[in-house]
Write a structure and sequence with these properties.
Strand content: over 45%
Number of helices: 1
Helix content: under 10%
Oligomer: single chain
Largest sheet: 4 strands, antiparallel
Radius of gyration: 16 Å
Strand order of the largest sheet: 1-2-3-4
Structural class: mainly beta
Shape: globular
Length: 192
């Protein structure tokens, strides 16, 4: 859940179509424009490029600022729309949740897990765990322009936050920041 003034957004993962980590999980958001007194209908974010919903989503997060609503979620992408494995997506609304556009923010790489989201001063920062090098590492992607960079396809690089030979899933706990400073809290090896 996230709120800014009158705007409130609630996001969740629905596993009723088969249970955790099975095809059929979807990520949803409902938005209120009156401080939570009433909410609009549920928006299903897991219709990738007009494809079928139910693609094993997880790790759903939401943040709002002004009229910007950002939802981040992991999606297991079916091969029918160009890939397989877990990728990271953002669903962005610049009009208080009236319309959302989905974009992939993990640069088309597979095996993403765990994520954190920060929306502050018009910037979107998304941290996630990925094992593109054979070990689990933490990366951050940044949109400096209130969603315009991500929506315009400007996800051209990411920032490596942790490196080394972690052997288990690294857990990301939160991101915070002010000005040009970003802090990402993570556990180098889950359970260690």
């Amino acid at each position: 859940i996230s709120a800014d003034g009158d705007l409130v957004a609630v996001s969740w993962q629905d596993v009723s179509a088969g249970g955790s980590n099975t095809t059929g999980n979807d990520s949803y958001t409902r938005v209120s424009l009156d401080r939570g007194a009433t909410f609009g209908g549920a928006v299903n974010h897991t219709n990738f490029n007009g494809g079928a919903s139910g693609v094993d989503t997880g790790f759903t997060k939401v943040e709002v600022e002004g009229s910007l609503v950002v939802v981040v979620y992991q999606g297991g992408v079916p091969s029918t729309i160009g890939g397989s494995g877990d990728r990271l997506f953002a669903s962005i609304s610049q009009d208080s949740g009236a319309n959302f556009t989905q974009v992939e923010v993990s640069l088309g790489l597979n095996d993403t897990d765990n994520n954190c989201l920060l929306v502050r001063d018009g910037r979107i920062l998304i941290g996630y765990e990925e094992d593109r090098t054979g070990v689990d590492e933490i990366y951050v992607v940044v949109d400096q322009n209130g969603g315009a960079d991500f929506l315009g396809g400007v996800v051209t690089s990411d920032i490596l936050v942790s490196s080394g030979a972690a052997t288990g899933n690294q857990e990301i706990y939160f991101a915070d920041g002010a000005g040009d400073v970003l802090a990402v809290s993570y556990e180098p090896e889950a359970g260690a």
